[in-house]
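Sharing a chain and its predicted structure for anyone who wants a worked example. Both blocks are below, sequence first, tokens second.
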Amino acid sequence: MKIEVARNAGFCFGVKRAVQLAFETARTSGGPVHTLGPIIHNPQVVAELERHGVRAIADARHIRRGTVIIRSHGVHPDVIESLRRRGLTVVDATCPFVTKAQRAAAALRGEGRQVVIVGEPRHPEVVALKGYAGRDSVIFNHQPVRIKNRIGVLSQTTVSEDDFVRALLAFGKQASDIHIFNTICNATQIRQRQTMELAQRSDLMVVVGGRDSANTARLAELCKRVGQPTRSVETEDELRTAWFRGVRKVGVTAGASTPAATVQRVVRRIRELTTGKTKAEGRRRRGQ
């Protein structure tokens, strides 16, 4: 059986930058270090950071002193201002593509437009974007929304191009003055395109990434849209031998918040399962 891994599977630039900043801050900071929510949507990376002294906190009000790392998804601008007023050190690890979307939201708001965000209402990136977009902004997520005649449109950075285009077509029937910012990040577009191409030439797709990762979930959706059987896993321990029976080629892709080492372990485990080796045997062989 052949295994092919998508060329750009794993950490994107923004995630890699955020994780590196977190580890560097843990190493150089003299006091406690926190992140507002998980630095990225990957439980294994969050657990590793906690072992290095970086603790994820859901509510900024519970942080009394030390350093606060703004995670890759960004936060509402009022949150950053509040942290600084309280004398906390702020390290901004917001993904540059997310920062670009935040500036676009603020610019559209400055034009006096109602801002429409295409994305998932509860996703932290979208919650932060709404802070820049203003109180009258709305979120479009496949359901009709009431919009004004003069709007500005942007998206969560991990939205698929197809979903963004469909949203724009819907808005065109309701508004006559539309200013559009395409804020889908390049890494997302490339990863999604490569995943769909790989799915078309595979018998089974394995998508690796955190269960709370929006971009990982979207990759799985795209694989299913192509019509291929798709399995989603966080780690290699979730793989099952039965999935690969009768399969000649497996495609493996991973979300932008999935470490390369996790992808490698998944590929190694697939080989073990499909060649009859047990996990223990595989480990012994690698130790020789």
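Comments welcome. The longest strand covers residues 150-155.
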